[in-house]
Amino acid sequence: MQATKLIGILLIVAGTLGLVYGGFSYTEESTAAKIGSLEITVDQEKEVNVPMWAGVGAIVAGAFLLLVGGRRR
Q: Any stretches that span the bilayer, and where are they (predicted)?
């Protein structure tokens, strides 16, 4: 499989997942205070939103790469 086709498929999958889920969240651990050997950590959940235009753009770019990648030789 050519690299352009693989990248095109990955872009289509990523764009579709971005449209379906709308974003993702992750947990970040940070140190709130450290006094001697005592350490207090805080877990913060952060959320990243994927804009709709980015998902659609990834799908369009992936389809373009599949079309162009199949015609080159």
A: 50-68
